[in-house]
Amino acid sequence: MNKAIVIRYQPLAAMLSAAILAMVFAPPASAFRPDSPEVQKMVTSGVKFLESKGAKQGRPGATALIGLVKYKQTHDEKDPLVLDAVKHIRSTLSGLDPRHLGKDNIYDIGLMLIFLTELDSAKKTREYAPEVKCMLENLALRQKKCGAWGYDNRGTGDTSMTQYGVLGYWTAMQNGYDIPVERIDAVADWLLRTQDPSGAFGYQGTVSSSYTPVKQTNVRHSMAAAGLGSVYICADMLGMKSKVEASKRQDLAPALKRVVKKEPEKKDGNKKKLNSRLSPRLFHPVQTRGNRWFGPSPRIDPPQWTYYYLYALERYESFRELAEGRVKSERVIEPSWYNDGIVFLQKTQKENGCWEGRAEKIPCTCFALLFMLRSSAQSIDQLDDFGEGICTGARGIPNDTDRVVVRDGKVMTKPLLGPAQELIGILEDGDRDIDDYEQMMVALPELPPTEVQAIAVKHKDLLYQLAGHQLGEARLAALETMEKTRDFDYVPILIYVLMTDGQKDGHTRVACKARDILRRFARKPKGFGMPDQPDEADRRAAAAAWKEWYLAVRPDAKFKK
Fold first, then answer.
1. In sequence order, which ranges of 350-490 are alpha helices (DSSP H)?
2. Where residue 192 falls among pLDDT bands split at 50, 70, 90?
3. Domain 37-54+154-250+273-381 class, CATH top level
């Protein structure tokens, strides 16, 4: 090669290498964090709006929200706005009997409790113990027989109110207050029984007679975040966390995976083991369904109660991070849902610093600011030690709750098998319940495609049988496996499921999953139509179009009738 060319080539190569490295390792332009200048500017403007209104609002819950925002921003319990909020809340509660704090005020009680216990936790004191105990007693008295909280004149539990009762219990527990396990069990049981089959939650919970999801009313994003976040919080209080080691996460390249040095186990003398009557296995399917409903990129701007929803979303995602072992040191860049939220809030903040929505300006602004400040994550990060499972769902259950099974009423520990062996075991044993198939779907992301392919080839007949199983979760698990193989041989069974699933029970989520997989296989984002709630004509038209497409690819294809 000509020497002059070599000399010119080397700087060019260096420049290209530098550019590639910058593209790979530089954070995206919209990689916001709570301490980012753009975020801090919005927070400062929003807090100025709250300061202009003062901390003494009509409802004590609004006062508590303002004080909580200011404390989360400054971490100064002596800040004038924080002290004003404390004074107003103490005046509100002074001399009141816990039985007479008013009706339908779980929002106020929960928010005041959260605010005061946050302050107590930071100061490591019990300065507000009289007020906290009064509110805890009120929550206990107001907790319904079903386990949830709600309007006094209704027999149903209210998912919206319940989230603040649950969070109030959690913050009090972190500051050393005793919460009877029966109280936590009761609300957890209600939440586990009121999930919609889609994975979301409704407003006034319809309670399932078992733990199989039943149709809920007024299902929307805000209730999904409220319900699922509360499930994660209850699981944490009961010590039923299911942690995922950072080294197993699939979103990092092998060379970038963090090696964590194991430290000696810490013992937290403030935490007591709780003998819950609930099994850890009850939580896992509910969390899996809910996480699947939200997906990797949750919607940020639903039309109803948008800012109230954003605070609930941040809470759900933060407690999910805690359950999965994603600690503060790993949040170098905040996740996509946070960045999407910041972009949305940039567009919607008013000139005076507030946000407006269906609720009043003050709560909307507070909820937006709590999202931006990662309020729930801050509370979690204050804990000195998350430790192993601090309590058990039944006597004798080990700390590693992922390995727990209950057979014939006995608590047993599964052998330490890898995801591939777990998957094979579920496929080979047809006598399984809904939880096993949920576990199968959770295990799939941990498997490399080559292992899934090998399993699918060996057990193709079983996958076909599973796709016609009476349990919707079994059918869904089969489709999840087929999707990961990217094997066109499964197209006929996908078309069959698309055409038949849900005709008897009215639930079409598996059929819609088959439709979405076909779209990805064919690289046709819109596919051939078929809405989320198809009628018979929609199904037949979509199936006919997919068959025509597949025959063009494989003319000798045969379809199941």
1. 361-372, 375-381, 419-428, 434-443, 449-458, 460-467, 472-485
2. very high
3. mainly alpha
